[in-house]
């Protein structure tokens, strides 16, 4: 190994040492009130687990260290956290104070401020946390808690302020006296601590309370007794919403959707009816795109600029180029739509459907694992599966690629400028060369050479004057009954 350069490392270390930041995220609890088999922090908002919202916000602060305290379904939570933080196990959930203490090993050697966040308080913004941190630092405090005012304080810890400034403590809902129950300023569950104070005080916590738990909240009173605590109130109380039940989850989703949609509107996207649009946290939308009512953009969906989505569409993990028009009722999953394409109404693009530039897919057309080259069209009632289609080809109404023989899927290859007549079955594996024509109603089972016409001989027969005779026969029969 090349020689270490301790001087460079230690200089940088010293430069940052003045004020270091660590973040601890509490995510071990099951969340009984969710009544779910899934642990609470894995429930999703805007398609992203609660704990990931908190992790992403924490990352915006550029902390030196991030630790996540895991417990229930620890392995799944660890997988979601991934490389973003160190996970520490709290095998038994003995309270929030006990949980933070478990993070101590992950923060060994760390000196500075420790921001404690909750895996179930997902709407908090980085700017708010920065303000909390600044106020904590400039006040020279040991502990600062973030509070909010709520209409329904039940369930939250109450902020009990004394007559003197800095005299503050938190009383958990189940430990409140009757007069304290009326307090509407509550603990968000988010705090900033001096690391030395944090570890020392956590070691001395008792569990003499209604829940028999080690309460992190008790640290506020401890710091207050030394004149070094404060409570900062949120400007926007929505940021402090704690998700404890499915009702809270729905409320958080509504608030987050409002925030996400507002963000896209500010960046030049029109929503015809924001109340019925849904956009995932990961989705991206280009400028001057118009999103119609009842549209869901899920997962990693990316819509280009100047697109029109008429409405009632569901897109998941789909890439949409610029200037695309999705008519009413389009469903897509892991598909790619080239610039200028027109899709729908009522079309279904399944995984690995790839539409080139200016492709047209019309009503009741299903495309799966197939590529359509620039300018090709399938405008009515077709199934295109496991197919490669060249440029400017026309797939007639009712065309079916028969790709499955009951055991495996087989490919269909269609060249450039091919004209497939209506009601054609292409029995795969099969190939149709460039410029070939297929007559309507054909069943194609072998290769069609470029420029050829393929058709099945199904001679037409006609019986003159048949209808009159038929009606007479049928009518007589009915009367006789
Ligand atoms: C906590 C606060 C309360 C505050 C509320 C805000 C305490 C004692 N109470 O109450 O004052 O108003 O948050 O949302 O801190 N957790 C662990 N291990 C544990 C216990 C909890 O990791 O042993 C985690 C949970 O997974 C959750 C968070 O800590 O993410 C908060 O725990 P929760 O049980 O929801 O606390 P609350 O009763 O909401
Ligand atoms: Ca909670």
Give the proportion of residues in helices.
10-25%
Q: What is the domain tally?
A: 2
CATH topology heading of the largest domain: Spore Coat Polysaccharide Biosynthesis Protein SpsA, Chain A
Chain-averaged pLDDT: 95
CATH superfamily caption of the largest domain: Spore Coat Polysaccharide Biosynthesis Protein SpsA, Chain A
Task: Provide a compact summary of the structure.
It is built from ten helices and 39 strands. The protein is an alpha/beta fold.
Any descriptors?
481 residues; alpha/beta; Spore Coat Polysaccharide Biosynthesis Protein SpsA, Chain A; UDP N-Acetylglucosamine Acyltransferase, domain 1; 2 domains; 16-stranded parallel β-sheet; 9-stranded parallel β-sheet; 39 strands; binds uridine-diphosphate-N-acetylglucosamine; binds calcium ion
Structural account:
- The chain folds into two domains: 18-240, Spore Coat Polysaccharide Biosynthesis Protein SpsA, Chain A (Alpha-Beta Complex); 266-454, Hexapeptide repeat proteins (UDP N-Acetylglucosamine Acyltransferase, domain 1, 3 Solenoid), CATH 2.160.10.
- 22% of the residues lie in helices and 28% in strands.
- The longest helix is centred in the middle third of the chain and has 21 residues, at 246-266.
- The site of uridine-diphosphate-N-acetylglucosamine has 30 residues, from strand 1, helix 4 and strand 10.
